[in-house]
Automatic annotation (TrEMBL):
Pfam families: DUF1501 (PF07394)
PROSITE patterns recorded: TAT
Domain of life: Bacteria
InterPro entries in the cross-refs: DUF1501, TAT_signal
Listed name of the protein: Tat pathway signal protein
Amino acid sequence: MTSVHRLPTLQRREFLRRASALGVAGAAAPWALNLAALGEAAAQTAPSDYKALVCVFLYGGNDYGNTVIPYDAPSHTAYQPIRQTLAIPRDQLAATALTPRVALPDARQMALSPQMTGLKTIFDAGKLGVLLNVGTLVQPTTLAQYKAQSVPLPPKLFSHNDQQSVWQASNPEGAISGWGGRLGDQFLSANGNATFTCINVSGNAVFMAGQQAVQYQMSTSGAVAINGVTRPLYGSQACADALRSLITAERSHWMEQELNRVVSRSVNAQAIVASALNTLPALNTVFDTTNSLATQLQMVAKMIAARSSMGAKRQVFFVSIGGFDLHDFLPDQHPGLLRKVSEALGSFYDATVELGVANQVTAFTASDFGRTLSSNGDGSDHGWGSHHFVLGGAVKGGRFWGQAPEVAVNGPDDVGQGRLLPTSSVDQLGATLASWMGVPASDLSRVMPQIANYTQKDLGFFL
């Protein structure tokens, strides 16, 4: 009978390895790490300062053509007939036209969506920049190489699930670790409590899973509690204590033992988070409570404010907003989504200023892929490269990084229908962010496994 309940040896070992990272990190002591985690983090010198990275994922594939929009007259003239009913008239872009500190070549100009006035303000202040045409790649790839299929390409291009995973993990759907989690691996021993290295306020994402680091999932209200343990059960504290003992006690069966260790970790972590958040003074920065992305970022700001009580010196956060798969209704729905993104990021940046950590916190946007520049009538279809934002006090903002694509269909920068062939890779983006966090050049490949394929490993958007 026993063999029926046992996993194959290799699966059992992997289960124990992953569960150990959950269970052993349950205590608040600096030694709440397993030996593998200590070895992974040994390359890092425990930092005396604090830094946090915040990934803002736009699920569905954001439409780059109506987010960062060609504004100079020749480019907008080329843009309008390609976009047809999707095009935003040039006279509606004047308030969000960007004047970068370093001009684009060929007198090119860009504007943000008219709904993104908040990000325009941060751009003008030099704390936000735009990374042009970034996407998943295996190695630098030209259009000729793409057409000839003479270089390796990201698997399953234009597939939502797979490209979300490739963006977040450098591997298609089914990946077990993402580069946010692998970045967290590098700093486990620097944090007083390893549990709070990778924090997800959006549910679950492979981006936050490390080889040893395990994402701690929260809601916008705080730590998720086991109600029967954190409050009297059936009106009885004795019942609550009995339940706690039942679900956290030592067990003889290995699966029961690992489950109880995970539950114990959750109970202990919830108590730490609740105590830390309850003692925080209220933020003066206003977040729109009707905007789900804003409330997620508000919780991130609160966790950053509570960093000292949790012993955190390096943290990675994940938040998200969906609804961007707009094959239809793009003119009606996309502006509202971009307004939410702009307002949420604007409030979050203001909160980091209020907390005095603006120079220590960097946020960036990401998405499954860009979309076609060409219109399908009422929307756009799955694409590849896209434009994204990086913001924070340490960012060399007020400028564009990367190469501005030509506004054309079947032009030199796309693989058809305005699907951009990326000229900057997610690996380069991740390596740049990891370097800022303190990962040495010799360890970048542990975070971004394909970075060795690139001569330029740092995209240069930090001061």
